[in-house]
Design brief:
By secondary structure, the protein is α+β, with helices and mostly antiparallel strands. Helix content is 54%, strand content 18%. It has helices at residues 18-53, 69-94, 100-113, 170-203, and strands at residues 59-63, 119-128, 131-133, 136-138, 141-150, 157-161.
């Protein structure tokens, strides 16, 4: 048999005071006003930071047709063969000289040696995706650049920016690291040899 329970009603004494409601409304309105005032300043700061990251130095970009091994090899080969032109362009840029003649020679070289490839050369303001290179971040932007696009241009690219001096290829960077590592090992070996020699001299002193 079920027990009988007495049901009682409890008066809700937590009534919302109208002054508290008014204060909350005022606080909400102030927050909205502050947002309206501060948001444009934040946006301006973001654009200012972006503009500081964007420099006017010439960028060089070679984009592979795709990421297949053959297309990436072709891109690497082209970069190696065009490095003398890129070097001359870099020197002219730093000396504030005109590069029109070098661009013409580069275009002739590409047309002669890569006639079987669809290579498009664009000089001017080109849209370049965001890039992180040598601890420098370059946001997506229309950069003053020399862009060589092979075929569909859907593969990884080779990137270089003149004044930031990031024109090294990965192989060059790896070689430099190997040389530094070898130099460190030789220095450590020399230190060990010196310590052993000093110990031997002390034994017979």
């Amino acid at each position: 048999m079920l027990n009988d329970y007495e049901i009682t009603s409890v008066d809700n004494k937590n009534e919302i005071h109208p002054i508290i409601s008014l204060l909350k409304l005022v606080a909400f309105a102030v927050a909205i006003m502050c947002s309206i005032i501060l948001v444009p300043n934040v946006v301006d700061e973001v654009y200012e930071t972006r503009s500081n990251l964007v420099d006017d130095s010439l960028k060089i970009r070679v984009v592979a047709n795709s990421n297949t091994y053959a297309d990436q090899q072709l891109k690497t080969e082209m970069v190696e063969n065009l490095t003398p032109f890129f070097t001359q362009i870099q020197q002219n840029e730093q000396a504030q000289l005109d590069n029109d003649e070098v661009y013409a020679e580069l275009a002739t070289f590409v047309e002669k040696n890569y006639a079987d490839q669809d290579v498009k050369i664009n000089v001017g303001d080109n849209l370049i995706p965001p890039k992180l290179e040598s601890n420098m971040f370059y946001p997506q932007y229309h950069y003053n650049s020399l862009v060589l696009t092979i075929g569909d241009g859907r593969g990884d690219n080779w990137w270089c920016t003149i004044f930031a001096n990031v024109c090294e290829r990965k192989a060059d960077k790896d070689s430099e690291k190997e040389e530094e590592k070898k130099a460190d090992e030789e220095e450590e070996e020399a230190k060990v040899t010196f310590v052993v020699w000093e110990w031997v001299k002390k034994l017979f002193a």
